[in-house]
Amino acid sequence: MNEFDLLICIIVIAVIALIFFREKEQKILGISLNKPSNPNGVLLDNSLKQKKGQELTSEQRSIIETNIGLYHWLPKHLIAPWEERIICFLEEFPITFMKKEMPTEEMRILVAAEACLLIVNRPLSDYRHLKAIHLWEDEIKGNKNARGNATRFEINLSWKYLKQSIKKARDGHNLTLHEFAHLIDFADDGIAQSIPVSRNSKDFKQWQELVNDEHKKLMKAYEGGKNYSIRAYGGYESIKGDKPELFSCGTSAFFERGSRLKRECPKVYLAMKEFYGIDPADWRQAKAK
Ligand SMILES: [Zn+2]
């Protein structure tokens, strides 16, 4: 081996060592080289940036105003980001009506509006894994007792029940917010366990403790026959011990019973306030025109 060959050998070994240690360091930091930030998420966030300043038509706004109870509680400064997200959502996500191929304009607007209310101060990439939204006239095929369900990729909603649950802004239950909150919970790791951040996040442990503590609190309240700000269904626990419903039921309570949730479960309220970037306990109903 001459000097030139030796030099080439050293360079090759140095490059291999560099790649090896870089990979190891990124694994320690929790960044997998095989998992770059989700490309679909980047596209969605770029698409939303291009909608800056766009507004709904007066007909679309009127559908929201007539049907969505929370519309009348939303602070003025959130209307513009909400509408930009709705416009983007309608372009990006397919909504099908399982009775006919095409959903009505009212269906499309109301689903998009509710889904985007949840992320009014968050990025659209929260829905980066979403592939399909299916609306059912009433019952969901194959899931008789459910009015909605969610996987990491798909949402099913009963149209009949959706319309009822979005009308009332203060009953603490909202089907669409509930199911899309599952989608957010699934997004980071494919698990719905009421922790909406990944295991590598600095907030993971805090969420884990919160879910365990608040689940106990909720169970105790209902066992003692008390009424509570988060619905009893939030106490559901899987065989594996996950608590998938607390985040979704807590989300509905956060949007629709903000003041009460803040009073009864201040830690849940604060965590959600930071996560969703909004403060519904301060929202006031607009006076009727
Ligand atoms: Zn649920």
Please explain how this structure is put together.
The chain has 289 residues and is mainly α. It has two domains: 38-187, no CATH class; 191-281, Collagenase (Catalytic Domain), CATH 3.40.390. The protein contains eleven helices and four strands; from the N terminus they run ααααβαβββαααααα. The protein has helices spanning 3-28, 39-49, 58-67, 79-92, 105-118, 159-167, 175-187, 204-223, 245-256, 258-264, 266-276; strands at 95-97, 132-136, 148-150, 154-158. Strands 1-2-4-3 form a four-stranded mixed beta sheet. It is globular and about 85 Å long. The N and C termini lie far apart (90 Å). Zinc ion is lined by residues 178, 182, 245, 248.
Contiguous runs where pLDDT drops below 50 for at least 5 residues: 21-36
Tell me the distance between the termini.
Answer: 90 Å
Order of helices and strands: HHHHEHEEEHHHHHH
Instruction: State the oligomer.
Output: single chain
Summed up, the helix count is 11
Query: What compounds are bound to the protein?
Result: zinc ion
Shape: globular
Order of strands in the sheet with most strands = 1-2-4-3
> Could you say which structural class the secondary elements and strand pairing correspond to?
mainly alpha
* Estimated radius of gyration: 22 Å
- Strand % is 5-15%
Q: Helical content, roughly?
A: 40-55%
Largest β-sheet summary: 4 strands, mixed
Q: What number is the mean pLDDT?
A: 89
Count of structural domains: 2
Number of DSSP-assigned strands? 4
